[in-house]
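Dear colleague,

Thank you for sharing your sequence with our group. We've completed the structure prediction you requested, and as agreed, I am returning the results in plain text so they can be pasted directly into your records. Please verify that the sequence below matches your submission; if there's any discrepancy, let me know and we will rerun it promptly.
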Amino acid sequence: MSKLTFSINLDNAIFADDASSEIARIFQDLANFAKETTLSDKDFPLSKPLKDLNGNKIGYLKITK
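Please find the predicted structure tokens below.
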């Protein structure tokens, strides 16, 4: 069984005024990544850093087997 995990650290200044729009942007980035990525058994484990609009690493996505 495979497992997808993602985590976002909201302690970044970009989330201070309106976290929902930045979270939505990150989810859209993840949706685009999912559409463009082919996953097979040889691709696991897979990880992708999550970055805010300013390019700061704020989390990760991991897919493990």
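Summary note from our side: The chain has one helix and three strands.

Kind regards,
the structure core
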